[in-house]
Amino acid sequence: MEKTPFFHALKINEDTCIGCSHCMKICPTEALRVRDGKAVLMPDRCIDCGNCFKVCPTHSIFVEQDDFEAIFNFPVRVALIPSVFMGLFPNDITVSRIYSILKEIGFTHVIETESSIPVYTAAKTRYAAEHPDIRPLISTFCPAIVRLIQVKFPGLTENLIPLRAPIDITAMYIRRKLNHDEGLKDDQIGIFYITPCAAKIAAVKSPVGEEKSLVDGVINMDSLYNRVYHEIKKQGKAYKEVKLPVSQLSADAVLSSLTNGERRLSDARHSYSIDEIHNVIEFLEKIENEEIEDVDFLELRACDQSCPGGILACDNRFLICERVFGRARKIADRERKGEQTKDRELEEERNYLMRNMKVGEIHPRSMLVLDDDITKALEKMKKINEFRARLPQTDCGICGAPTCDALARDIVCDNAELTDCVFIQRNLEARGNMDVHESLQIMEVIWGKDKINDYVKKK
Amino acid sequence: MHLEYKVYEADFVNAGAASSAIKKTLKQLNVNPQIVKRVVVALYEAEVNAIAHAYGGTIYADIEPDKIVLKVEDKGPGIPDIAWAMQEGNSTASPEVRNMGFGAGMGLPNIQKNVDKLNVQSTVGVGTIVEMEVNFV
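^ Those are the sequences you sent over. The predicted structure of the assembly is below.
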């Protein structure tokens, strides 16, 4: 099992966190606790899904990104941009106009991530044919899903398709093309990925199953949206468009980051496409038990509506989906009329890319393991069951852990005390074994002095 | 560690609850995922057997540092010919049960494939006891 810690893109701003515990309650891997009035992240459990970011009322959970100015460290600056980004803008803003603004603000080249979808799809089909014994195969398109499986479903890591994701394939392509066509050296080229989510950043900064990332930096989609939209506003109504060549994406490629985007391109007999992390967890439980049999392929995405639901895709996800659909419909029209050829993206480098598609083994890194020594683990489990039986099962969160079960586990792992439970405190008080000052002190350790003092003051 | 679960006749809705709970436990004990899978598959089959063929029963699990010992004890019609039932495709399941996707006659053979030790005792008209062991190493 891998022991090196995950890189996390999600960070907590302690200065503004009010310790409200909303994030702790929503986290699908129980990776958050409250201590001293602040949310605390358990790095081994967090999968960077971003649910906490969405519910934080004070925006204290933020996504660390590279400084935009960092692009100017490179003479050649590539914006590697997911087509979801185009879906943030109203229909009258053309793709070509967005490309031209990206070039005005500093990029020298723009390429859409989905350019590599035909190659990616072909590689997946080849992998499926070469490994008929591994079923279901699980897509590694969504990095939060890869991490979810590593920490929560370690038995399914071997079902993950160990291939590069489209962003890496496209990065590999553009780097090679610039090497060849423009004679540029690697260190002259800066490739910057515009991310719709935190998980992609984490995947770029500490790639699973890869030694080194193919991308030089990451820019949050919401911050780039602001820059581009600002330019659009400055151009005003008088703007005269100059048509620029844009990535010749197929309709299939444009749709690929939406839910069902991969499944519809798969030739697997039985496949499912599931979005939203809790839905995915529910389904994987059944897959793990082999309650659902005869499944060939799973497209799993951590966000509702897939990438349009990413925490940095800064518009309503359904609106984004519809705009992306609209673009795909137009392309499909051109494809039908023979004005655009299908699946020809990156054609000239297809063989090279197909040869460099594999990533290393993806290892389990279970968050559930109590102890590497099974005798000790059994001991701990016994204790957990004993503590659990004494807890009220209300999952109220007042102890600073998301559930009574989590508290029982924390106690045994020396991260909490049984007396952190407010029900236990009352009980001890009633029996004369604890006074109100002691229980208040426990509350202070969890929720911070200020919270309790403030409350007293308000009265 | 000792665990017990009850299963009820024809309660297909909850089939798999015991194997899920045991899976969760074994994962926390750092048992090799492939071994966990074998335990879960075998126990799920036995669980469904007790639900589909018998009038319910009890699942007993004892987890030791080196193995899991499982016993599924049901009250039911019993198996008249165990050797026959151990062969793939042989089943006495009712058409109703088959319609639900169970009763393909793969139950006991599938258990056999996934466990290290299997012992089936049955008395017609009384019930069946399926004892299974899976070693962790």
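Residues 1-64 of chain A form a domain with the Alpha-Beta Plaits fold (CATH 3.30.70.20). DSSP finds 17 helices and eleven strands in chain A.

Shout if you want it in another format.
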